[in-house]
Design brief:
Strand content: 25-35%
Radius of gyration: 28 Å
Number of helices: 11
Distance between the termini: 72 Å
Shape: globular
CATH class of the largest domain: Alpha Beta
Number of domains: 3
CATH topology of the largest domain: Nucleotidyltransferase, domain 5
Helix content: 25-40%
Structural class: alpha+beta
Oligomer: single chain
Length: about 450
């Protein structure tokens, strides 16, 4: 009837670790908690921890829709630290009116499989696995608008940036809660600094659409963050406000009562209203027709047995003829093997030393400037350096401290011949993964 009512709730920490203990044991603990609360429902939605999610933001070139998928697959292969076949990837498209962007969110496939095994042991059937923050009302801004959502919990602060009908970025800020005896307080200056750094990575049309910072969370920490962060985000043209309830509506459904706004409630309402299926880390399940085809495919093998026997005779004859041809080819190869080996060695030398024959030593000049800018003690390292068209340079690696990365970028900006130094991505905390690029204008 277009309304939902919370009948039963259970909120208890698990004694077992999701990633370390056996999935069967974790699943049994979850089932026992649900049974003690009298909850018998089998279908469920899962809020994956935001810290598990990798993000990759990409500007979309002017491509046909059928070519966008291939382009994003190439970007994922280049930008994520893991190969695509190790990841479960979901995509969100952002349209600002002047440009289109895509944000790819990925979770390790092993973690998703482990989640499914835990839920199966708990006798639960997942219909969606998604970051809970993305299900909060209004967290995904409509086309032409933009907003930031900050969720405060015991571990830190999770930040979601959205604009143009899609997700722009997702970050977790750890080590921003300080304990003083029995009291806990937020390091608001550190949060504001990380917020400025995060927003500086995105284009102006996205930053210009952001107008509001919404703070969600139970307890005094969320109120502290909203109050103290408000003056600090005014220079960014943002207004901070705290959200405590959904005002009786969640994803088009009327919520009976005035429950506290939470990711769990929003996930459930989103699933019931069927408005959030686009973002889902749950692997696709085979359709009923695919299951039937797989079940009865063995009968077709029985009918094809007689044909296979006849084909086998033909294949044997072809195999014997092929062996006769191969014997002749081997004889010819032995006659030319020495000359071919010498030619291959010569080609290998050419490929090995061709890059060093550049009269301008462009590559060496670029590498020299990068090496001189990096600190000597190893606190900032580069995993890969990509030089495209002898002018565009992309550097990826890891660092223990964000300040060291910023100093290195400042030194590169001050280097003659280097221009347009920009940060592409910063992920993680310690170590942090980074990618930046610059334009090479010439040797010093």
């Amino acid at each position: 009837n277009g309304s939902v009512e919370i009948k039963k709730t259970v909120n208890a920490p698990l004694t077992l670790d999701l990633l370390r203990n056996e999935p069967e044991l974790v699943g049994h603990e979850i089932r026992n908690l649900l049974s003690s609360a009298g909850i018998k429902e089998r279908r469920c939605v899962v809020g994956v921890p935001a810290a598990w999610v990798l993000t990759l933001h990409t500007a979309l070139p002017d491509l046909a829709d059928e070519d966008v998928q291939s382009f994003l697959e190439l970007e994922a292969e280049r930008g994520f630290p893991n190969s695509p076949d190790q990841l479960q990837v979901a995509r969100s498209i952002v349209n600002t009116g002047s440009a289109r962007y895509a944000t790819q969110l990925a979770v390790l496939g092993d973690q998703v499989e482990r989640f499914e095994a835990i839920l199966a042991a708990a006798q639960l059937r997942p219909v969606q696995i998604v970051p809970a923050i993305a299900a909060l009302p209004g967290a995904i801004a409509d086309t032409g608008l933009g907003c930031l959502t900050a969720v405060v919990n015991e571990a830190g602060v999770t930040l979601l940036i959205s604009a143009g009908g899609g997700i722009v970025g997702l970050r977790t800020l750890d080590h921003v809660i300080e304990a003083e005896g029995s009291e806990r307080r937020l390091l608001t200056d550190a949060i504001a600094r990380e917020l400025r750094i995060t927003l500086s990575q995105y284009p102006e049309d996205i930053r210009g659409s952001l107008r509001e910072l919404r703070v969600v969370g139970a307890g005094d920490l969320a109120g502290q963050l909203a109050d103290e962060l408000g003056p600090r985000v005014k220079p960014l043209n943002l207004t901070a406000r705290r959200l405590t309830t959904s005002n009786g509506a969640e994803h088009g459904l009327q919520v009976i009562g005035e429950p506290m706004l939470s990711g769990a409630l929003s996930l459930a309402a989103q699933s019931l209203s069927a408005t959030g299926d686009a973002l889902n880390f749950l692997p696709p399940k085979p359709t009923l027709w695919q299951q039937i085809s797989r079940k009865y495919s063995g009968k077709r093998l029985a009918y094809s047995g007689a044909t296979a026997g006849a084909v086998a005779v033909v294949l044997v004859a072809m195999f014997l003829f092929q062996q006769f041809q191969l014997a002749g080819l081997r004889s010819e190869w032995r006659a030319m093997e020495k000359q071919v080996t010498e030619l291959e060695e010569l080609q290998a030398d050419i490929r090995q030393f061709r890059p060093w024959n550049d009269a301008n030593a462009t590559s060496l000049g670029i590498l020299r400037n990068i090496t001189e800018a990096f600190p000597e003690e190893g606190s900032l390292t580069a995993k890969s350096v990509e030089i495209r068209q002898q002018s565009t340079v992309s550097v990826s690696g890891v660092t223990r401290d964000n300040a060291i990365l910023l100093r290195t970028l400042d030194q590169l900006r001050a280097t003659e011949g280097i221009a347009e130094v920009k940060v592409d991505t910063i992920r993680g905390t310690s170590p942090m993964q980074y990618t930046f690029n610059f334009q090479w204008r010439g040797n010093r």
